[in-house]
Design goal:
Blueprint (H helix, E strand, L loop, with lengths): L35 H5 L4 E5 L5 E4 L1 H6 L15 H7 L8 E6 L6 E8 L17 E7 L1 H27 L5 H12 L6 E8 L2 E8 L6 E6 L7 H8 L5 E2 L3 H10 L10 E5 L7 E7 L11 H37 L11 E7 L10 E9 L4 E9 L3 H18 L6 H18 L7 E10 L5 E8 L5 E3 L5 E3 L16 E7 L4 E5 L1 H4 L2 E2 L2 E2 L1 H8 L8 H16 L7 E7 L3
Antiparallel strand pairs: 1-2, 1-5, 3-4, 4-5, 6-7, 6-11, 7-8, 9-10, 10-11, 12-23, 13-14, 14-15, 15-16, 16-19, 17-18, 17-20, 20-23, 21-22
Length: 568
């Protein structure tokens, strides 16, 4: 190196080692001396070249790294073009370089840098482009391999993280199946088919490179009898296995599509799930070798299939729970009102959790029964909210239907219902389960009027809207139902003239809290006259919308309304 780097000595003569005297292109440059012991003791490869690019000295490390390097020959002969260009001062980075060179043991990544000129005498000030140059070479193949390994591991982790985000929370079996095959292509294979057996149904999703949105189909579980290899692979709880070509034919039979990958090697990967579903992923031309369990790609495939299994199991469980919830909601939902001669019915219902469609408030109407043709009705509110309250309300309604077979008079039926609710709580070792309610029956008369018998326990008193707009409160009260065995309940009788309406409502109406406080009984009574002469269903709908407007988006309790009307 020249004096700019502060090195006090420079080579004046060259003395060539004995094993490097044979040269195909001997140099005519004046010999200079480099002590072999000075550079052979270095771990790095050292190459000294003169201004003509002739190698004047090279240590053992350099010759091991560049087997074609010969002392006395032009550096181009070493088949390291980037070193030759650096020696000649060509290229953008003449002070350092990095290149891949051929080697008997495989390609090597070589990193080189220009260093100080080694020698025993002080260097004269060099002219640009003149003088010897010393290059230090290092084998960085291992560093590149470690970097590549790290980058590959990061890429695999990023893929699994992306797959986890894409599959998490889908909770729909068909959409999950589509995402499973879409994520697998092209990262894991050139094509993918997923087969899922859930209950009595078989679903499949398939995609190939460049095929667009994954295709989806369904069939009955009996179709698996026509594809025994697919059925056997579905039942396999082991790892992925290479399969015979007949599997492609069976997949085509099952899906009606050509086999994945157009004749490419297939691999079946049973998906580990928890017994909720049976699932199988078939990959075309998979990237994982499948022979070495420690192979990174094999580990990636196993991890991905495990994530797919978890997502499919979650989606299947959600489907089962959603079906169970739908059946339960349907059984607990507000019933349809009957068509009754001489009586007009109207109702409205809004649960506190509207997405559940059910709650603690309830109403029930039973068609005419007995020689008098009385129609029974019930409106109540159980303690609690949501599904637990809905289940309790269903229990009350079932008890009411059963007890009506024994007693039809409301004033006697309500104590029986009180006892039944207390006994049910005692046998189930539950906490207090009480309710408020109004029950009664309606009998149409020949003159167009409707005679009502009412009994109430702990519930707001009914209101009567007369045809002329007058509003009356039915004077009836009673204790909570299911609170005490000696509870007392009130009873009353009301006669509805043509066009009159009796309104039953839950406390969710009067306790609806808006910006101006509670809706209240007075505001409810004030809203009724505007409904005079309207059909019973319109009365309930109008009052429900009035309460909703009062709430102005605030949370609310269950709201239930039931109107009994004598035809106008």
């Amino acid at each position: 190196m020249d004096g700019r780097h502060g090195v006090p000595t420079r080579v004046a003569d060259v003395r060539t080692p004995a094993d490097d005297t044979a040269s195909t292109a001997p140099s005519t440059a004046p010999p200079t001396t480099v002590d072999p012991g000075l550079i052979d003791g270095l771990d790095e490869g050292v190459v000294v070249c003169d201004r003509a690019g002739v190698v004047r000295a090279a240590n053992a490390a350099a010759r091991a790294l560049l087997p074609d390097l010969r002392v006395g020959e032009v550096v181009d002969v070493a088949r390291c073009e980037v070193l030759a260009r650096a020696v000649r001062g060509e290229g953008p980075g003449t002070g350092s370089f990095e290149a891949v060179v051929d080697h008997p043991e495989g390609e090597r990544h070589v990193r080189g840098r220009r260093g100080p000129v080694l020698g025993p005498t002080p260097p004269p000030p060099p002219e640009p482009g003149e003088g010897d140059s010393t290059w230090f070479l290092r084998d960085v193949t291992g560093e590149h391999a470690r970097t590549d390994t790290l980058l590959a591991a990061q890429e695999r982790a990023a893929f699994l993280a992306e797959a986890g985000r894409a599959l998490h929370g889908v909770l729909h079996l068909d959409r999950t199946a589509r995402r499973v095959v879409a994520l697998a292509v092209p990262r894991l294979a050139t094509g993918a088919v997923l087969v899922v057996r859930h209950d009595d149904q078989v679903s499949w999703a398939a995609t190939e490179l460049g095929a667009g949105r994954p295709r989806l189909g369904h069939t009955g579980a009996s179709a698996l009898t026509r594809v025994p290899r697919v059925a056997a692979a579905l039942a396999d709880e082991g790892g992925g296995v290479d399969v015979d070509p007949w599997l492609a034919e069976e997949l085509a039979t099952l899906t009606g599509l050509e086999g994945p990958g157009s004749g490419a090697p297939l691999r079946a990967c049973p998906v580990p799930v928890t017994g909720v579903v049976d699932a199988l992923v078939v990959l075309a031309a998979p990237r994982a070798a499948g022979d070495d369990a420690t192979d990174p790609e094999e580990d990636l495939l196993s991890s991905y299939v495990a994530r797919a299994g978890a997502a499919l199991a979650a989606a299947a469980l959600h489907a089962e729970q959603a079906h169970l919830g739908a059946v339960l909601q349907e059984s607990l939902a507000a019933p349809r009102l009957p068509d009754t001669d001489g009586v007009v019915w109207g109702a409205a219902y809004r649960p506190a959790r509207e997405t559940m469609r059910v709650g603690g408030d309830f109403y029930e109407v039973a068609g005419p029964r007995g020689p008098e043709g009385r129609s029974a009705f019930l409106l109540g509110d159980v303690c609690g909210k949501g599904i637990e309250a809905a289940v309790l309300s269903g229990r009350v309604r079932q008890s009411w239907h059963a007890l009506r077979l024994l007693e039809d008079r409301p004033a006697r039926l309500l104590p029986l219902l009180n006892t039944a609710l207390l006994d049910a709580v005692a046998t189930r070792d539950e906490g207090p389960r009480f309710a408020t309610m109004v029950l009664g029956d309606a009998r149409p008369e020949d003159d167009g009027t409707v005679a009502l018998r009412l009994a109430t326990g702990g519930h707001p008193p009914p209101l009567v809207l007369r045809a002329d707009g007058a509003v009356e409160t039915v004077p009836v009260a009673g204790m909570l139902v299911g609170g005490l065995r000696e509870a007392r309940f009130g009873e009353a009788e009301v006669l509805l003239g043509p066009g009159d309406t009796c309104l039953l409502y839950s406390d969710g109406v009067v306790e609806a809290r808006g910006a101006g406080g509670f809706f209240g009984e007075e505001r409810l009574a004030a809203a009724l006259p505007a409904c005079a002469g309207a059909p019973a269903a319109v009365v309930c709908e109008h009052l429900e919308q009035t309460v909703v407007e009062w709430l102005d988006g605030h949370d609310h309790d269950d709201v239930a309304l039931l109107a009994i009307q004598a035809p106008a």
